[in-house]
Design goal:
- By secondary structure, the protein is α/β, with parallel strands linked by helices.
- Helices cover 43% and strands 19% of the residues.
- The chain has 10 helices and 10 strands.
- The chain has an 8-stranded mixed β-sheet with strand order 1-2-4-3-6-7-9-10, sandwiched between helices. Strands 5-8 form a two-stranded parallel ribbon.
- Helix 2 crosses helix 3, helix 4 packs antiparallel against helix 5 and helix 5 packs across helix 6.
Length: 265
């Protein structure tokens, strides 16, 4: 368990195991605890680094703009990681791809799990229809947050994203949202990525990319996975049967098999 100083703050990270380096990037309302079951098997063969973004977990809160990509570089430098496979879930997939675009020499492969990028540029009719559903989810989330508070909003959010996880995993994810509720209530996200954002730059990515999606995730996320795998020049797509947005918890065996295959290149 360690901390590294960054401009206007600090970041928390952990390392487990020995071997080739893998860096895990959390979902947006989670922290390093989401990876506990993954670390159990992954650290048997790899050195695994997990870390908390600003405003999440044990890392410092933010009150001004900061460079998301520089934060990951700071963690890797402090952890002694020169080059690694990056495994990013949801918003973590976006961050991993942004880092791979700026620092391809430091990335062996990106495993993008249910990667999320928000609104589609020039959406197809299917993509626009899927975003309508997601906008409705976020609008209802805001209403519940205002009327019933953070615990009810956390339940609503996890039910939407993760309908396939078992009860204990559901409780874990709700607890992570509660623990990281600052992110849920912040009026402005201070993290800054590429300009223009990486979602406009998939064809420029030179790193191999393994995209993992689940059919019980939001259709919008699934379509982002298809778009990424189609536009990035060295990407492949795997659909994990019965998985939702957090396949390490909803379909752990299939997730392990897919990640293991990606790590073998």
């Amino acid at each position: 368990m360690s901390f590294v100083n960054v401009p206007d703050g600090y970041l928390y990270f952990e390392q487990h195991g020995e071997g080739p380096d893998v860096v895990l990037l959390n979902g947006g309302l989670a922290d390093v605890r989401m990876w506990s079951s993954t670390i159990e098997w992954l650290a048997e063969t790899h050195r695994v680094t997990t870390w908390d973004y600003r405003d999440n977990g044990l890392s410092s809160p933010s009150d001004r703009a900061y460079d998301e990509i520089a934060d990951l570089a700071a963690v890797m430098d402090a952890a002694g990681v020169r080059r690694a496979v990056l495994v990013g879930v949801s918003d973590g997939g976006r961050r991993a791809l942004g880092f791979a675009h700026r620092h391809p020499e430091r990335v062996e492969r990106v495993v993008a799990v249910g990667p999320s990028f928000g609104e589609f540029p020039d959406p197809t009719p299917a993509e626009e229809s899927a975003r309508v559903v997601m906008r409705a989810h976020f609008a209802q989330l805001a209403e519940i947050l205002e009327s019933d508070g953070i615990p009810a909003a956390a339940e609503h959010d996890i039910k939407g994203w993760c309908p396939a996880v078992p009860e204990d995993a559901h409780r874990l994810l709700v607890g992570l949202v509660l623990a990281n509720a600052r992110v849920l209530t912040m009026p402005v996200h201070h993290g800054v990525e590429l300009d223009p954002p990486v979602k406009h730059r998939f064809p420029e990515l030179t790193t191999p990319i393994s995209v993992l999606i689940g059919p019980q995730d939001f259709e919008g996320t699934q379509l982002w996975g298809h778009r990424l795998s189609t536009q990035a020049p060295h990407a492949d797509l795997t659909v994990l049967p019965n998985a939702d947005h957090m396949p390490m918890l909803s379909t752990p065996t299939a997730f392990r098999q897919a990640v293991t295959q990606a790590l073998r290149g």
